[in-house]
Amino acid sequence: MTGHRRCAPCAVPPHILERIARNGNDEQRARALSTMAQDSSHRSVRVHNALMRSVQRPATPPRLAPTSGPRRTIGDAKESEDLPGTTVRAEGDAPVADVAVNEAYDGLGATFAFFLDAYGRDSVDDDGMGLLATVHYGDHYENAFWNGRQMVFGDGDGELFNRFTVSLDIIGHELAHGVTEDEAQLMYLNQSGALNESLSDVFGSLVKQHLRGQTAEEADWLIGEGLLTDAVQGVALRSMKEPGTAYDDPVLGDDIQPAHMDGYVRTTTDNGGVHINSGIPNKAFYTLAVALGGHAWERAGRIWYEALRAPQLRPNATFRSFAAATSRQAQVLFGPEETQAVRDAWASVGVPV
Amino acid sequence: MTGDRNTGSRPDGGGPADLAGRIRVILERYGGIIGRPVRRGLDTAQLPADQAATLRSLAASLTAGPDGTAGPGGTGGGPAGADRFVYVIEVEFQGGRVERTFHEPVPEGVRPLLTLLSRAPRLPARPGPPPPSSPAGGSPRR
């Protein structure tokens, strides 16, 4: 990460600062506004750096040669919630007997290779950041997450969920949260939060497709493939191809992801339904990828990646503003055919560009 | 983390929670990469005496103090990162209820109660109408 983002004021997410500014007393409001002003100046630095990068960026994706390749470290929390846990495998070490450790190690490697090969990106921060993952987190912990510094994987309850390292797309999803945080700091709330989630699904799926050498037509477009146990009536956590169809289970419930703005879910839970409404941009990306054909990371993925890096993308981006960013990038990077395909994809989910 | 957010309500206008009688403790978990809410709960009326006593003891740590603020602090704001869980623990007792929201990482003092509730039977989703949808092209209210 760049140094300016490590400052103390940035520890409080922007949406919380906005909430305090809106609802706090005079003193709290003054402090929040002051912090937001400082954060804005940090954003100015980021915008400047992004502009400099865009000026220096060649017409074709750069193929950087990182000085050292991935620097992976896998920790074992041993069913505690202590991070990062005991180091059990470091870069270059041979596989160990613990399958979760090896899956995490290989998954980080595949994700690093994807971002480097497809977009010339050198790790999470494009500056060779070490990749740290902890496995066996918590007691039957049914989750994987990005905590702002590292990836964390639970073992699942064994009844509904298997270990969370079992899905390469989930490992890619979590690492992509780090990329999004580094590039755009999308607020984890409502539409910007759903975009944040969708970007992780997009790049998580592309990591898997890249490793398998699959085209858009060949890919399964599932997130969390293999994660659900045989006891669950479902195939994955989410389907980018057909949002809302991944599972329908008496215990887990049914998949309620919408595939169109007609079904946009307004809710106060899950940070405004970030894991629900992500189905809409997910479907838009899938539609574009299939329309363009071939390897989805080459054109559709590149457009999404550069839109994420665009200095115009605000932390409170909406589906519509992100759609506009993708349209601009399609025009800059490719041409009218791709630009029209981007507009058609967004229109198909009810987001006009 | 942004500190406490106690959303507890006391129809009796305050005072220590009376946990001597029947209490019901409900855990609602939101978020995570799964994104599905999970609801679990325990009721002292349906537990053996020793387990009911354990539940009362752990719930008391959550509801301590005249206005609920002396217990482990709830955390109202989201932490850095993504895909983290949010827990809402509700304690219903004779004369009132207290509800606390915790973002991960949860305070140490809450973990024993959270662990106990995480192994409790699943409950049906919170009753109420399904979330409304906005019209095409709409955006959520911020």
**Cross-sheet strand order for the largest sheet of chain B:** 2-1-3-4
Parts with pLDDT < 50 across at least 5 consecutive residues of chain B: 1-13, 65-70, 128-142
**What is the helix/strand order of chain B?**
EEHEEH
* Domains of chain A (count): 3
Strand content of chain A: 5-15%
Please give the most extensive interface between any two protein chains, plus how many residues each contributes.
A-B, 60 and 38 residues
* Residue-averaged pLDDT of chain B: 75
Mean pLDDT, all residues of chain A? 87
Helical fraction of chain A = 40-55%
**Quaternary state of the chains:** heterodimer
Determine the fraction of residues in helical runs of chain B and give it as a percent range: 10-25%
Q: What are the segments of chain A in which pLDDT stays under 50 over at least 5 consecutive residues?
A: 1-22, 34-47, 53-63
The total count of helices of chain A amounts to 10
Taken from the alpha-carbon principal axes, the silhouette of chain A is globular
Radius of gyration of chain B: 16 Å
**Biggest sheet architecture of chain B:** 4 strands, antiparallel
Distance between the termini of chain B: 21 Å
Structural class of chain A: alpha/beta
The outline of chain B comes out as globular
Largest sheet data of chain A? 5 strands, mixed
Which value, in Å, is the CA radius of gyration of chain A?
20 Å
Report what the structure shows:
The complex is a heterodimer of chains A (353) and B (142). By secondary structure, chain A is an alpha/beta fold. Chain A has three domains: 3-56, no CATH class; 72-183, Elastase, domain 1, CATH 3.10.170.10; 190-348, Neutral Protease Domain 2 (Neutral Protease, domain 2, Orthogonal Bundle). Chain A is 44% helix and 9% strand. Chain A is built from ten helices and nine strands. Chain A has helices at 14-23, 26-56, 99-119, 168-183, 190-212, 270-273, 279-292, 300-309, 319-333, 336-348; strands at 72-76, 86-90, 131-137, 144-146, 151-154, 222-223, 238-239, 248-249, 253-254. In chain A, the strands form three sheets. Chain A has a five-stranded mixed beta sheet with strand order 2-1-3-5-4, with helices on one face. A two-stranded antiparallel ribbon of chain A has the order 6-7. In chain A, a hairpin with a 4-residue loop joins strand 4 (144-146) and strand 5. The model of chain A is unreliable at 1-22, 34-47 and 53-63 (pLDDT under 50). By secondary structure, chain B is of the alpha+beta class. Chain B has a domain at 24-118. A four-stranded antiparallel beta sheet of chain B has the order 2-1-3-4, with helices on one face. Chain B is globular, with a radius of gyration of 16 Å. Chain B: Residues 60-81, 117-142 are annotated as: Disordered.
